[in-house]
Amino acid sequence: MKYVTEFRDAELVGGVLEKIRQTVTRPWTMMEICGGQTHSIVRYGIDQLLPPEIELVHGPGCPVCVTPLEQIDRALAIAARPDVIFTSYGDMLRVPGSARDLFSVRASGGEVRVVYSPLDAVKIAQANPDKQVVFFAIGFETTAPANVMAVMQAKNLNLKNFSVLVSHVRVPPAMHAILGSPSNRVQGFLLAGHVNAVMGYHEYPPLLEKYQVPMAITGFEPLDLVQGIYETVRMLEAGRVEIVNAYARAVTFEGNQPAQKMINQVFMECDRAWRGIGVIPASGWCLRPEFDGFNAEKRFDVGDIVTKESPLCIAGQIMQGLKKPHDCSAFGKQCSPETPLGATMVSSEGACAAYYKYGR
């Protein structure tokens, strides 16, 4: 398949790996910021094929994983109501709240439906005027345009029974929090190609200037990833602090400007809590006041729900690049895909799920 098989060519990947071995002269720690990249790295054993001088650590790039516990509990409270059809992507159903998950709500009689697009939720609202239909709008910049479209369509249709529980987060503020931490270990970043396809990379030069950490934009296939690592190693070894676009087939500096315009019409920046990490200023998007009629948190008055994380789960440290999943005493024991303590074990993009699935 074009643009897939050639980026999984073992000979081409091996050639780039050899160039990395010839270039690196000292230890470097770099972080991939995307959970999809984490799974590709672990699935294809890229981290084990790299020379020992290079350590890859895994960032908070899994939208399911960073959705805060209190937001999960708000979703559970809404989904349990008899007048609600609660819609969500499938990977949110197993994410544990304080006491249960959305699967448990469905098993207890709650109407929880898996959808493949927020526009599906709008159609459900049209077909069920006697029910309140709520869509769990999570994600990074990548999923924001579709969620915005759903809100705009519901407004155009004058739907009074549709709302969204928003838990959107943004990548640059998270990088700022990681790089500004006294315990930071990251010396170079692999940026998420799909985020940059939407937003471009015009937001990153201030981070580059402040923290002097080189960055490479890369995709998700093995060749994409090793090329991004090679570009980052070259910059680190040469003492250059730049942004290299190693995913030019999908990413431009400006990004998708019509999508950005739509996002800004519906969303505004806000502080956001990240699961296991805490509140990061201006790291999220919330609905603008003129769209409050579609705000499920306000419609169902669940904003006061507060929660406490499991003391056994070290997902926050894993997502900050401070520890690896196998450093957790609960990994594969108290915490497994069947009995997860945190979202990183059940999400399809979670680092713990990747290590568990691929046998690390």
Structure, explained:
- With 360 residues, this protein is an alpha/beta fold.
- It has helices at residues 10-23, 35-43, 46-49, 63-66, 69-79, 102-107, 118-127, 144-156, 171-179, 193-199, 205-211, 222-238, 257-266, 296-299, 315-319, 351-357, and strands spanning 28-32, 54-58, 84-88, 111-114, 132-139, 162-169, 188-192, 215-218, 243-245, 267-274, 278-287.
- The strands form two sheets. It has a six-stranded mixed β-sheet with strand order 4-3-5-6-11-10, with helices on both faces. Strands 2-1-7-8-9 form a five-stranded parallel β-sheet.
- The longest helix has 17 residues, at 222-238.
How would you describe this structure in keywords?
360 residues; Rossmann fold; six-stranded mixed sheet
Please state the average pLDDT score. 93
Helix content: 25-40%
Order of helices and strands: HEHHEHHEHEHEHEHEHHEHEHEEHHH
What share of residues are in beta strands?
15-25%
User: CATH class of the domain at 64-169 and 255-299, anyone?
Assistant: Alpha Beta
Q: Number of DSSP helices?
A: 16
What kind of assembly state do the chains in view correspond to?
single chain
In the CATH hierarchy, the third-tier topology of the domain at 64-169 and 255-299 is known as Rossmann fold
Largest sheet, in brief, is: 6 strands, mixed
CATH H-level superfamily title of the domain at 64-169 and 255-299: HypD, alpha/beta domain 2
Distance N to C terminus: 29 Å
Shape: globular
Note poorly predicted spans: none
Query: Strands of the biggest beta sheet: in what spatial order?
Result: 4-3-5-6-11-10
Please give the CATH architecture of the domain at 64-169 and 255-299: 3-Layer(aba) Sandwich
Q: Specify the structural class.
A: alpha/beta
